[in-house]
Amino acid sequence: MLLDIDYFKSINDNYGHECGDKVLSVFAQHIQKIVGDKGLVARMGGEEFAVAVPSVNPVDGLLMAEKIRKGVELQPFTWQQKNALSHGKVLASVVVAHRTRTLTDDFNKLMVEADTCLYRSKKDGRNRTSTMRYGEEVV
């Protein structure tokens, strides 16, 4: 799963890098709280995070992704005692990729598919969860 904070550059531009760092920290903590010990959470760079969770059912990954996205959307974010960012909310686009073979065989392919789907989600309106299964996008 790839997660990307929507409009992150504007957060840094409008509120400063200290605020951006706080958003990244709160975002990462929220993801880690939901994933728990079921998987691995990693920051890929900038405002992009990856989550690897072993599961035999792709629906489980989609449900977890939507739980993360919705939780981020509903969590108010304040900066210097004021609501900040699009009505005090951080928004995220999330994409889920699923394969049945071993992770080492598929990791690079999963990342390419997830990245492609993530950019499509952003183009189609942001703040959404989508998945790509066997080369087909499912929203």
From TrEMBL:
Keyword GTP-binding: yes
Record-linked PROSITE patterns: GGDEF
Transmembrane regions listed in the UniProt entry: none
GO CC, any one term: plasma membrane
Record keywords: GTP-binding, Nucleotide-binding
Pfam families per UniProt: GGDEF (PF00990)
NCBIfam families listed in its UniProt record: GGDEF (TIGR00254)
Protein name: diguanylate cyclase
Organism: Escherichia coli
Chain's gene name: pleD
